[in-house]
């Protein structure tokens, strides 16, 4: 084999044949990204997402010094606090639902200090496209603001947090994709439930009219009973018999059970916890099963947090240390206390012991 091929990538990816499409907002053909805003209006979906974000953002962030130097950690911490890193981390977690979340980094030069952080500006991901090479590496981004001019910006000016990126998923992957089918089924169920309530939720009348009534009289009688249904007042002839049928609320129970089933499927997709909450359900989870489910959820949260901290180090802290101390200078690591700096098994064990202690004390 040619030695030059041993030192670089030579495979041209299939996606690169249509890489010009990524200069538009990068949306995979099999993605349901258009439905994401509606999904985030669903109480169950939003509850799961906000619960995950709160669990991650509740941890204090700090910088772990790099081995062998690589920057004044105390000074870097002050710079990041001034640049409102907490807000940037909160915005970056939107990459879980969109697949990626871009921030533009603004630097400033301080005499005797070199480059320092000034601000992080989150960008609407719908206006961002990617320029990629034949190996699907992001070279720069293209901004197409509505009503504005085209802008191209090199990737080293940005922090683009992507969830589970790959060569086939340059724009990352949304965690909402796995919950889309359950949400769509729930959405259709709620629409049908609302339609049935609109049609049959008020009850209806059954009339017995003499055969001698003309069509005009029947029409007048129908209008009279409509007024009776809406206003509670109507003038009814003596020879007309009627019976009011109460609304069939039992049909709503079937819809309610279906919604609860879809909710459990949404929780299973997002939090790996899908216990059936429908009335009469008997598939209750044991304590050990619930503990394992909780542990799996913690694994996922730890993975999300580490993914975000790693991308921040690679795209923000790394270039800063390279610019100030040289290309081979080590750089600190960003951590979320008690999440990215510990073993999730040990953290789960510690929390389990705490809960046991509280139960015993109570």
Structure write-up:
By secondary structure, the protein is of the alpha+beta class. The chain folds into 2 domains: 12-180 and 292-361, no CATH class; 181-277, no CATH class. Helix content is 45%, strand content 16%. The protein has 11 helices and 10 strands. The chain has a 3-stranded antiparallel β-sheet with strand order 3-2-7. The protein has a 3-stranded antiparallel β-sheet with strand order 4-5-6, with no helix packed on it. β4 and β5 (138-143) form a beta hairpin. α3 runs parallel beside α9 and α7 runs antiparallel to α9. The protein is elongated and about 100 Å long.
Key terms for this structure?
2 domains; three-stranded antiparallel β-sheet; 16% strand
Helix content: 40-55%
Task: Give the termini separation.
Answer: 71 Å
Main sheet characteristics:
3 strands, antiparallel
Q: What is the number of domains?
A: 2
Written as H for each helix and E for each strand, in order along the chain, the element string is HHHEHHHEEEEEEHEHEHHEH
- Count of helical segments? 11
Sequence stretches where pLDDT stays below 50 over 5 or more residues = 282-290, 355-362
Strand order of the largest sheet: 3-2-7
Shape by Cα distribution: elongated
Average pLDDT taken over every residue? 81
- What class, by secondary structure content? alpha+beta
Q: Count of DSSP E strands?
A: 10
- The radius of gyration computed from the alpha-carbon positions, rounded to a whole number of angstroms, is 30 Å
* Beta-strand content bin: 15-25%
């Amino acid at each position: 084999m040619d030695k030059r091929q041993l030192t670089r990538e030579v495979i041209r990816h299939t996606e690169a044949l249509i890489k010009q499409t990524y200069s538009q907002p990068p949306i995979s053909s099999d993605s349901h990204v258009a439905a994401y805003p509606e999904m985030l209006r669903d109480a169950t979906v939003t509850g799961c997402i906000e619960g995950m974000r709160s669990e991650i953002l509740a941890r204090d962030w700090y910088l772990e010094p790099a081995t062998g130097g690589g920057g004044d950690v105390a000074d870097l911490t002050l710079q990041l606090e001034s640049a409102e890193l907490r807000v940037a981390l909160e915005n970056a977690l939107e990459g879980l639902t969109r697949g990626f979340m871009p921030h533009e980094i603004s630097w400033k030069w301080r005499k005797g200090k070199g480059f320092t952080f000034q601000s992080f500006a989150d960008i609407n991901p719908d206006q961002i496209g990617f320029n990629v090479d034949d190996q699907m590496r992001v070279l720069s981004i293209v901004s197409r603001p509505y009503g504005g001019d085209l802008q191209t910006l090199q990737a080293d000016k940005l922090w683009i947090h992507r969830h589970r990126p790959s060569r086939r998923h340059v724009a990352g992957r949304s965690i909402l994709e796995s919950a889309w089918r359950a949400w769509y089924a729930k959405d259709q169920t709620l629409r049908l439930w609302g339609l049935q309530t609109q049609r049959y939720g008020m009850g209806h009348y059954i009339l017995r009219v003499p055969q001698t009534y003309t069509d005009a009289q029947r029409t007048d009688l129908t209008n009279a009973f409509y007024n009776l249904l809406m206003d509670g007042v109507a003038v009814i002839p003596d020879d007309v018999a009627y019976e009011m049928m109460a609304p069939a609320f039992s049909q709503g129970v079937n819809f309610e059970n279906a919604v609860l089933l879809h909710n459990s499927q949404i929780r299973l997709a997002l939090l790996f916890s899908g216990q059936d909450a429908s009335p009469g359900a008997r598939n209750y989870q044991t304590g050990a099963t619930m503990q394992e489910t909780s542990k799996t959820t913690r694994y996922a949260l730890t993975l999300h947090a580490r993914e975000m901290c790693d991308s921040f180090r690679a795209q923000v802290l790394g270039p800063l240390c390279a610019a100030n101390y040289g290309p081979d200078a080590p750089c600190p690591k960003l951590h979320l206390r008690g999440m990215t700096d510990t073993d999730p098994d040990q953290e789960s064990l510690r929390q389990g012991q705490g809960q046991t202690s509280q139960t015993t004390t109570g």
